[in-house]
């Protein structure tokens, strides 16, 4: 389990973050504090893997805390969760090595995407003694992901949005190419292109299932509910 410290001086926001965190597999709340000073005490006494860090706090702000954490060479990772959206703050946070930056207010889906991506990267890194360039680009630096503003030939932006909405509405349920084609109203040949594209984005996984007479068929399941996909298609 990934141990998380929430550093947030607004009790209501802290509680929202706690509830959001509880809904994402692989994470456990290590502690929740209201100041940078309290966070430093927790880091001395507890094992923490990830900090969800606010910027605007009294006495010592989040950037000051980040500076102290890096000065003691702590291995803890940080995701900023803040209303601070000015260029200076964001650039400074990125220079301190934050792994993501969420600007308040945000939807649960963006929070989930940040935590899920972090978890997947961490699990991948932990399972490797060494990493090849192609794996680094694809799994960590995300340089091999297809760009949604440069859709492959045969992929229509509006149809892709409809496909994604059907997948999202049926979250947790697998489906065949034929089933999804019928829901969306396109041919099976066309649907295969959309499903292949979503597999390339590592949003879908394809598995072989056998029917009652032994004939194999492919079933698809959503393995990474990337809400930013919808946002980038707007």
From TrEMBL:
GO CC terms: cytoplasm
Sequence ranges assigned to domain Response regulatory in this UniProt record: 3-119
Lineage top rank: taxon: Bacteria
4-aspartylphosphate: modified positions: 54
InterPro entries linked to this entry: 2C-system_Tx_regulators (IPR051271), CheY-like_superfamily (IPR011006), Sig_transdc_resp-reg_cit/mal (IPR024187), Sig_transdc_resp-reg_receiver (IPR001789)
Pfam families: Response_reg
Primary location class: cytoplasm
Subcellular location(s) of the protein: Cytoplasm
MF-aspect GO terms: DNA binding; DNA-binding transcription factor activity; phosphorelay response regulator activity
Coiled-coil ranges per UniProt: none
UniProt keyword ATP-binding, yes or no: no
Gene3D superfamilies: 3.40.50.2300
Keyword Phosphoprotein set for record: yes
Descriptive protein name: Transcriptional regulatory protein
Species in which this protein is naturally found: Acetonema longum DSM 6540
Organism classification: Bacteria, Bacillati, Bacillota, Negativicutes, Acetonemataceae
């Amino acid at each position: 389990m990934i141990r998380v410290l929430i550093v947030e001086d607004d009790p209501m926001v802290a509680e929202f973050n706690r509830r959001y965190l509880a809904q994402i597999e692989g994470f456990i709340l290590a502690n929740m504090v209201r100041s940078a000073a309290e966070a430093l005490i927790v880091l001395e006494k507890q094992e923490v893997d990830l900090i969800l860090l606010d910027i605007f706090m009294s006495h010592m702000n989040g950037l000051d805390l980040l500076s102290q954490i890096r000065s003691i060479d702590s291995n803890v990772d940080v995701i900023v969760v803040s209303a601070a959206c000015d260029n200076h703050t964001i650039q400074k946070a990125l220079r301190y090595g934050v792994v993501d930056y969420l600007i308040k207010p945000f939807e649960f889906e963006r929070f989930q995407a940040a935590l899920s991506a972090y978890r997947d990267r961490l699990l991948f890194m932990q399972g490797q003694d060494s990493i090849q360039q192609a794996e680094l680009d694809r799994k960590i630096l995300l340089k091999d992901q297809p760009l949604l503003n440069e859709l492959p030939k045969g992929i229509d932006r509006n149809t892709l949005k409809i496909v994604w909405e059907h997948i999202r509405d049926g979250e947790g349920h697998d489906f065949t190419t034929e089933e999804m084609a019928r829901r969306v109203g396109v041919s099976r040949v066309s649907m295969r292109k959309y499903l292949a594209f979503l597999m390339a984005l590592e949003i879908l996984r394809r598995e072989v299932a056998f029917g009652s007479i032994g004939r194999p068929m492919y079933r698809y399941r959503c393995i990474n509910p990337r809400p930013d996909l919808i946002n980038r298609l707007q």
